[in-house]
Amino acid sequence: EKGTYPHFMLKEIDEQPFVIRKIIQEYQNENDEIKLDPDVRQAMMDCDRVYIIACGTSYHAGLIGKQFIEKLAKVPVEVHVASEFSYNMPLLSEKPLFVYISQSGETADSRAVLVETKAKGHPALTITNVPGSTLSREADYTLHLHAGPEIAVASTKAYTAQMAVLAILAVDTAKAKGIELEFNPMKELGIAANAMEALCDQKEELEQIAADYLSTTRNCFFIGRSQDYYVGLEGALKLKEISYIQAEGFAGGELKHGTIALIEEGTPVVALATQANVNYSIRGNVKEVAARGAKPCVISMKGLDQENDAFVIPQVHELLTPLVSVVPMQLISYYAALHRDCDVDKPRNLAKSVTVE
Ligand code: M6R
Q: pLDDT for 247-292, tens place per residue?
């Protein structure tokens, strides 16, 4: 039920802080320790490499998950688009663990890989919003997203939930391996949830940004470096899928290798600046595109913000910025679609779960 909301997408965007708090609750015991299926913990301990398989938005969550698992738990991770995996099956490590990320748990492209890797005897963990789904039933283990039903075709709360669960999984593995961490995932996720809530209260400002930058444009580029690049990919996917604006995400450093040729007078370029170690470089990219006529829309994080940034998100732990920086992207896409009279919840040519290969 949409309740008083005009669209499921807007309702689901607003639900995100509550979903993150629910995840904290579900994955914590009474001693404030991580509560996770011991078999999943063992599978993470036993593997020598994680292969994340997913599509669309879930693939984008996987890119962030790789950062969590490699940086915190020190386990190597590869992330693959499911539909490409079988043709280009990499040389597998000796003890691979396959992790399927899927909101619906019904995505045929991911299932095809699951069937193939199960047949080879490799263990599988599914991270899904639907525990009884095909991918969940056919895998050895499941981690539940607890996001509640996601109805809008454009995935929002499942994406942030996937990243939250991946962060918890990474920290749990690190702890099981005896790695000392300063990062307290539940505390930091709580801070991120509060920040997300604050952003959900800034809809008018974000609607204005959508009006200023996106109401009449033909295309839009998203640039970022490091984690911001991955969030840019997700921002671009949101925008193209519901507003039909041609949108592409690029690594800031790649601009000069070709993409910058696309910049024309007035081209909107959404630049993410939430990572201290790349702030200088991404700011350089913003100057480069501005010098060629682009209309930069910088979304930065407090502490790294500069005069003329279009929007500033609250400060959160640098690992968790994607959970927060994606919220303005989702809302900008939503309002852009609305201004352009698009069917926000049911964009053309798309289905909520893609059950054909
Ligand atoms: O249910 P899944 O997470 O497996 O779905 C994967 C993609 O089809 C899905 O994320 C799609 O890209 C969304 N419509 C994006 O908003």
A: 999 999 999 999 999 999 999 999 999 999 999 999 999 999 999 9
Q: How far is the CA of 59 from the centre of ligand 1 (A)?
A: 8
Q: How far apart are CA 180 and CA 199, in angstroms?
A: 32
Q: Which of 303, 62, 16, 21 is nearest to 189 (CA)?
A: 21
Our answer on whether the CB atom of 126 is closer than 6 Å to any ligand 1 atom is no
d(CA 147, CA 107): 18
352 catalytically annotated: yes
pLDDT averaged over every residue in the chain? 96
Q: Given pLDDT bands bounded at 50, 70 and 90, which one contains residue 1?
A: confident
pLDDT at 180: 96
Handedness of CA 177, 183, 184, 190 (dihedral sign): negative
Strands (E), the chain: 49-54, 77-81, 96-102, 124-128, 141-144, 219-224, 246-251, 268-273, 295-301, 311-313
Output the pTM of the full model.
0.97
Alpha-carbon gap, residue 177 to 173, rounded angstroms: 6
Residue 295: beta bridge partners? Answer: 268
For residues 233, 237, 243 and 244, what is the CA-based torsion angle, rounded to 10 degrees?
Answer: 100
By DSSP bridging, strand 219-224 and strand 268-273 are: parallel
